[in-house]
C-alpha cells in the first residue's frame, strides 16, 4: 500500500527534526524518515556545550529532546531508510529499504554528511571517548592535554589551529609528505610553535579502555611503527554527503553535496534541502537546525501556492 503525505523529511538530525517541528506546527503533518543512523552525528558525541540554552547537554539527549519536540506537534516518525526516489513528477515517489512506497507533494532532504573514519582497530570502540571529528564541539575538554589531528587539508589545519586555544601540545599526522591544505592555512600552521607535524605517517590502531590512551602510527615508507600516547584524537580526512540515492534526480556538485538556490531550493521544484547534506563550510548542529527551519518555512509557502 502506498503511503501518501503532504511533506516527507528525509533525515532525523538537527536539520530534519527542526524542519519537522516547524512543519508540524504549520499543520503539514510531516513524515520524518529517520534513516539508518537516527539523530545524526550528535548521537556519537558526548557533551555538547555550544547549543544555545544549554551550558552542557549530552549529544544523544539533545537529539532525543528534539525528536520528542517534533512528535509533540504532530511529526510522524518512520524507522526506515530511503534508498530510491523519483522526482520526475508530482507527487514525488520515494522507496525505503523495506520496499515501502511513499508519495509526497514536497520533500526536504536532510540526510547530512558522514565524516570519513580511519577504519582501524579501536576506532569504533572509542568513538566519542576521546576520538572525534569535531574540534569545535569537543576541543574545550582538552585544556593542556595532548591531542593529535589526522589529516592534511584545510579542515585538519583549522582543527589544529583551533586546538591551540586550549593546549600547546598539538600534533598533526599527515599520510603524505606535504600538507594538502591551502597555502594560507599551511603558513598559519607551520608558523605556530604549538603545532608539530609528522609526515608520511598513518594511524593503524587506537588504544584505550574507557577512553583513548594511545595510537599506533606507521611510517608509510619505512613501515616502522611507534606508539604515541595522547588524550584526544581528531580525525579530519573528509566528509561524505549522504546523497548516493539522489544521483540523477537533483543537482549535486562534484563532491556529492546538494546544490541549493535561495538557501533551501534544489534543482527540482518542490524538493528542498537543509543541513550538512549541502553545507561543507560550517557543519554545526545550530546551523543545520537553522537551515531546517528555513526549509520548512519555504515548504509551507510552496505548498500554499500549489493549492
Strand share of the residues? 25-35%
Radius of gyration: 21 Å
Contiguous low-pLDDT stretches (5 residues minimum) are: none
Could you say which overall geometry the principal axes of the C-alpha atoms support?
Answer: elongated
Measure the end-to-end span.
25 Å
Per DSSP, the total helix count is: 6
Average of per-residue pLDDT values: 94
What string gives the helices and strands in order? EHEEEHEEEEEEHEHEHEEEEEEEH
Structural class: alpha/beta
Major sheet, described briefly? 7 strands, mixed
DSSP summary, beta strand count: 19
Helix coverage percent: 10-25%
Task: Give structural notes.
The structure is a single chain. The protein has helices at 14-25, 59-72, 135-138, 154-163, 183-190, 285-306; strands at 3-10, 31-33, 47-48, 57-58, 76-78, 82-86, 92-96, 101-109, 113-115, 131-132, 147-150, 170-173, 195-198, 201-208, 212-219, 225-229, 232-235, 239-241, 271-273. It has 307 residues and is of the alpha/beta class. Strands 1, 2, 5, 6, 7, 8 and 19 form a seven-stranded mixed beta sheet that branches. The protein has a five-stranded parallel beta sheet with strand order 10-17-11-12-13, with helices on one face. Strand 14 and strand 15 form a beta hairpin. It is elongated, with a radius of gyration of 21 Å. The mean pLDDT is 94.
Q: What are the main properties of this structure?
A:
seven-stranded mixed sheet, alpha/beta, about 300 residues, about 30% strand, 6 helices, five-stranded parallel sheet
Amino acid at each position: 500500500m502506498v503511503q501518501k503525505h503532504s511533506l516527507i523529511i528525509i533525515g532525523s538530525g538537527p536539520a530534519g527534526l527542526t524542519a519537522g517541528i516547524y512543519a508540524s506546527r504549520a499543520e503539514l503533518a510531516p513524515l520524518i524518515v529517520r534513516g539508518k543512523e537516527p539523530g545524526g552525528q550528535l548521537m556519537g558525541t558526548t557533551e555538547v556545550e555550544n547549543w544555545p540554552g544549554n551550558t552542557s547537554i549530552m549529544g544523544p539527549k539533545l537529539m532525543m529532546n528534539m525528536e520528542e519536540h517534533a512528535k509533540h506537534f504532530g511529526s510522524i516518525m518512520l524507522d526506515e531508510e530511503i534508498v530510491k526516489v523519483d522526482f520526475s513528477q508530482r507527487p514525488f515517489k520515494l522507496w525505503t529499504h523495506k520496499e515501502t512506497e511513499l508519495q509526497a507533494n514536497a520533500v526536504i532532504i536532510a540526510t547530512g554528511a558522514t565524516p570519513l573514519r580511519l577504519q582501524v582497530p579501536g576506532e569504533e570502540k572509542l568513538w566519542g571517548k576521546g576520538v572525534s571529528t569535531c574540534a569545535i564541539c569537543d576541543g574545550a575538554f582538552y585544556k593542556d592535554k595532548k591531542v593529535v589531528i589526522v589529516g592534511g587539508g584545510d579542515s585538519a589545519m583549522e582543527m589544529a589551529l583551533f586546538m591551540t586555544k586550549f593546549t600547546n601540545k598539538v600534533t598533526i599526522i599527515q599520510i603524505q609528505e606535504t600538507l594538502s591544505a591551502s597555502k594560507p592555512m599551511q603558513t598559519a600552521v607551520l608558523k605556530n610553535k604549538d603545532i608539530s607535524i609528522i609526515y608520511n605517517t598513518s594511524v593503524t590502531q587506537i588504544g584505550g579502555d574507557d577512553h583513548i590512551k594511545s595510537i599506533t602510527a606507521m611510517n608509510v615508507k619505512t613501515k616502522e611503527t611507534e606508539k604515541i600516547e595522547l588524550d584526544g584524537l581528531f580525525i579530519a580526512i573528509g566528509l561524505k554527503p549522504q546523497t548516493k540515492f539522489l544521483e540523477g534526480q537533483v543537482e549535486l556538485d562534484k563532491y556529492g553535496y546538494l546544490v541549493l538556490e535561495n538557501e533551501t531550493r534544489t534543482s527540482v521544484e518542490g524538493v528542498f534541502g537543509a543541513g550538512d547534506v549541502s553545507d561543507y563550510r560550517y557543519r554545526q548542529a545550530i546551523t543545520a537546525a537553522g537551515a531546517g527551519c528555513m526549509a520548512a518555512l519555504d515548504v509551507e509557502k510552496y505548498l500554499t501556492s500549489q493549492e
